[in-house]
Amino acid sequence: MSLLAVAVAGRGVVDPAEPVLRADDEALLRGRAAFETIRVYAGVPFKLAEHLDRLAGSAERIGLPEVNRLELETLAQEALDAAAAPDAVLRLYWTPTPVALAMVSALADHYEDLRARGQRLISLRGVRADEPWLLPGVKSTSYAVNMAAEAEARRQGADDAIFVDRQGTVLEGPTTNVWWRRERTLYTPSLDLGILAGVTRAAVLELAGDLRYTVEEGQFGLTELLAADEAFTSSTVREVMPATDVDGVPLSRGPSADELQAALRQAAGG
Ligand SMILES: Cc1ncc(COP(=O)(O)O)c(C=O)c1O
Asked: Tens digits of per-residue pLDDT, 161-187?
């Protein structure tokens, strides 16, 4: 991650090389903090309110002090002003101390190449967070397993992973939601599977309706995904990212990923 600017509660904008956390902050010691990653288009964070809502919900579920939204909004603007990068990635952190942190980093330039080429995906057996204590839908800094899944995908020559549960039910990617299409119907795993309620997922749901696709949210097996006409993932940073194959099974490139990507960019004013 190429850091452009950092702003921290009580101090404002600081040199990105400066330390910002106490050594006893459980964000560091236990991965017990809430965070959000937000795409910035033309200097404006897309769907900031929705990301702050999710951050507040995650913090509550982890048992952190109540999120100070105003403070985070102010820090976000200070960091964005300091970074002065129209297209960037904003990250917000809320730790147990509590520390509020906003960081702006450059957008990695390989995503557009990947979108043009299409991503290769592999399935990995993951944990289905179907008990409340497993923190379903919480975006916390305990992401070592998600990062390990990305590394495993790369080790197997793929670009990203898709988690499936023990029964082969499709869940989500390490940092994405998963979609596929058959004819005019788009399918995506439902939130009751304990997956993250992606802000991009919600945007795509709405845009899909505008584009006259039918959307079915539910519990679907990997075999259904492998038999799709087209598949893609969605996330704040990757936006709508088409797939060329899953577990080595080739998938056609189709129109819906491109249409939804264009609609998302239009909605974001980017
Ligand atoms: C596990 C997981 N699922 C899905 C997503 C996609 O969410 P969003 O569209 O809000 O980026 C993320 C984003 O980081 C994630 O970490």
From this structure: 999 999 999 999 999 999 999 999 999
Asked whether the predicted pLDDT for residue 206 surpasses 70, the reply is: yes
Question: Average model confidence (pLDDT) for the chain?
Answer: 97
Q: Are 13 and 82 in contact (CB under 8 A)?
A: yes
- Looking at residue 181, its amino acid is R
Q: Residue 264 burial by CB count (10 A; 0-12/13-18/19+): exposed, middle or buried? A: buried
Strand order in the sheet with 100-106: 12-14, 3-8, 100-106, 88-94, 34-41, 44-45
Q: How far is the CA of 268 from the centre of ligand 1 (A)?
A: 17
The torsion region of residue 58 among left (phi > 0), alpha (psi -120 to 50) and beta comes to: alpha
Report which protein residue has its CA nearest ligand 1's atom 5.
176
Q: Which of 40, 143, 206, 235 to mutate to test the pocket of ligand 1 (most atoms within 8 A of CB)?
A: 235
pTM of the entire structure?
Answer: 0.97
